[in-house]
Design a protein that fits this description.
alpha/beta, Rossmann fold, four-stranded parallel β-sheet
Length: 262
């Protein structure tokens, strides 16, 4: 499908990029504000479901995504990202792709799921063997393993960041530091990339600070990169170093300095 170029805006001359995040997730907007340059306008919305069961919430988010997009009214987005990896793990890659295609056609701009953005990043890296690091409960970790295996990747190791309960909302209590003990060279032998999956746990500091012999990527990093790529904003990307965006490390440093000063 052909998408029209953006008009010029007072704010966000490199596009209005929409993103929807689970209702209690405090991390997506914060990390996207670091990943995106200031010439990109972030238009965020919440995925809403009042079910107590986390699996039911995840299914509702993706099944009702069309209603979330209707909430933008007539706003012309450059591209839109579904910032909830767990939902895709539950429905599978084929259903995920069908939803992307249907909604992109209906709304007239690219709709991208976080998990499919990760797939695109892994393919850009030429990665086949991956380590999966996540804060998921066992049932969602198993679904993630099945998703990546069915997508043609070999998951050599699954490492779980411990959370206080099995409810996925306790993921939002974590920090980048919680992933650090799992990012050790001894666990990375014979792999091509490390995937920190999940949009709710902060990851950018860990990705920046930990030096391994393989790339470390995350759901939010890949989704932000893919939204710019699929919107044709390739001049903002690190062409020889996917899935990185130009200047993100400087913006991360500024955000960390501001946090310390506060």
């Amino acid at each position: 499908m052909n998408f029209f170029p953006d008009p010029r805006y007072d704010y966000g001359n490199n596009g209005r990029l929409g993103v929807a995040t689970p209702q209690a997730n405090p991390t997506v907007e914060a990390e996207f504000s670091i990943l995106f340059p200031r010439t990109v306008s972030l238009q965020a919305s919440r995925l809403i479901c009042d079910a107590a069961d986390p699996k039911q919430r995840l299914m509702s988010y993706i099944q009702n995504l069309d209603n979330t997009l209707l909430g933008y009214g007539g706003m012309r987005l450059t591209s839109f990202g579904f910032a909830c990896t767990g939902s895709s793990y539950l429905v599978g890659a084929d259903t995920e792709q069908a939803i992307e295609e249907k909604l992109s056609d209906r709304f007239g701009y690219p709709v991208v799921m976080a998990a499919s953005a990760i797939r695109a990043a892994l393919q850009a890296l030429g990665a086949e063997r991956i380590v999966l690091v996540s804060p998921y409960p066992d049932w969602l970790s198993d679904a993630a393993h099945a998703y990546w295996t069915a997508s043609g990747f070999h998951v050599t190791n699954v490492r779980r960041v411990q959370t206080r309960t099995s409810n996925t909302e306790t993921i939002y209590e974590l920090s980048s530091a919680d992933a650090l003990p799992l990012l050790q060279d001894s666990m990375m032998k014979g792999v091509d990339a490390v995937l920190i999956s999940g949009t709710g746990m902060p990851t950018l500091s860990a990705i920046h600070d930990v030096k391994l012999n393989v790339p470390i990527i995350s759901s939010n990093l890949c989704l932000a990169w893919r939204l710019l790529q699929i919107a044709g904003k390739t001049e903002l990307l690190e062409a020889d170093d996917p899935p990185y965006i130009q200047g993100w490390d400087v913006r991360l440093s500024e955000a960390r300095s501001s946090a310390l000063a506060g």
